[in-house]
Amino acid sequence: ISHVFRHRIPNTSWVASGMVVNILGTALTIFMIILERQGIRNLVTVGYPLIFMRIGILADMFFYQVALLKKWHHQEKQLAVEKLQSQLAVEQLRNDISRELHDDIGSTLSGIQLYSNLAISQVFAGNVQETNRTLKGISKASIEAVNRLKDIVWLNSSENITVETLFEKLKDYTTLMAKPISIIVVYNFLSENNKQILPGNIAGHLFLICKEAVNNAVKYSDADTLVVDLKFEKDIFNLEVKDNGIGFDMEAVTKGNGLNNLQQRATELNSDIIITTAKHKGTSVKLISKITR
What we know:
Order of helices and strands: HHHHHEHEEHEEHEE
Strand content: 5-15%
Strand order of the largest sheet: 2-4-5-7-6
Distance between the termini: 33 Å
Oligomer: single chain
Number of helices: 8
Radius of gyration: 34 Å
Number of strands: 7
Structural class: alpha+beta
Helix content: 55-70%
């Protein structure tokens, strides 16, 4: 009883209250019996010595029923909340997939459409070299669209994305991007729990942030070395992608979709992303995120 009242355990205070009343009723009944044996005779001690015990038992039963009803009501509310949360999670997933398809796939397909129209006009103009260059661009964009679609499917279909699985996926992508232009990639991976399962939305944002940073480094940095540094300790995820390339002027550069997407994804993780760069001094993209389970 003391434990229940001290820790305020939900739906048990009524049961404890019933027990208290029952104990008091029993104690009063015993007291009435003692009084009767001591020669104190009245209506209660002689005629109804068990009245307090019976009241205590009835009160105990009543409070227990109240506790059951309140617990049932609480469980119904919890089920309703869980159902609503599940519906919101599904809706959020749909919105995330729609956004990914619109941002990643939609823009690429629009580019393919424009290049296709350009290729048609170049064919009619008889410009073979320009047509070949345009068709190569279409082929490259198509491959990127397929790879992006695979990533979206992987992120939304994998139920158990662990820290180790995420790192291996990032390693495969970085190697695939860096190999054609002979960039040396250095991987540093430290985790206190490789098998820690990451929530799907968190894993998705971490993967896409790293992917965007790697993509920018490969395309624009003119670097020969790329370092991907990941650490996961005490529920803190440290991610850094840095290169030894030409860098850029943060004040002069116009923020495109790449930098905006990095900032938006960091915001959705309730984290800050730090981009450190200067001309001819390389670029570092760093994220520190608290993983909430």
